[in-house]
Design goal:
The protein is mainly alpha-helical and 135 residues long. The protein has a single domain, classed as Four Helix Bundle (Hemerythrin (Met), subunit A), CATH 1.20.120.330. Helix content is 76%, strand content 0%. The chain is built from 5 helices and no strands. α1 packs antiparallel against α2, α2 packs parallel to α5 and α4 crosses α5. It is globular.
Length: 135
């Protein structure tokens, strides 16, 4: 992890916030697939920040999802709901990116955005609480 871990965590949190705002904008524009993609990536970046707080990185998306569960949630650092949200959004993003025939109703998009907002708020708050422990 080049640079300080603190800088990396802050960068991931910034990217998560940017992706979440983009998801909201895309949803308002009627771009369901784009909104799902950005909602997932918001969570992906924030989950990566949480892992960085523990000096852990993963090379693949599935690795981030799994390591977040094992190293953060399973250890009791964050609620189980956060891991469930990340897994659900990962699956939803995969479907929206690769199952082009699939339609996504408005309630699915609304839930994805609400879940992503909850995830990012909870996990980012925890990350900020870890900052004084980081190099």
């Amino acid at each position: 992890m080049a640079g300080s871990v603190r800088q990396l965590v802050l960068r991931y949190l910034e990217e998560g916030e940017r992706a979440l705002k983009s998801a909201e904008r895309l949803s308002k524009e009627g771009d369901a697939r784009g909104a799902i993609n950005r909602a997932y990536y918001a969570c992906f970046y924030v989950a990566s920040a949480a892992l960085a707080c523990k000096y852990i990185s993963a090379k693949k998306h599935a690795g981030v999802v799994e390591e977040f569960w094992k190293r953060i949630v399973k250890q009791g650092l964050l609620p189980k709901k956060t891991a469930s949200i990340l897994r659900e959004l990962y699956s939803l993003r995969e479907a929206s990116d690769y199952q082009l025939h699939k339609k996504f109703p408005g309630k699915t998009i609304d839930k994805a955005l609400n879940d992503a907002t909850d995830f990012c708020t909870t996990v980012a708050e925890w990350c900020r609480g870890q900052m004084d422990k980081l190099l």
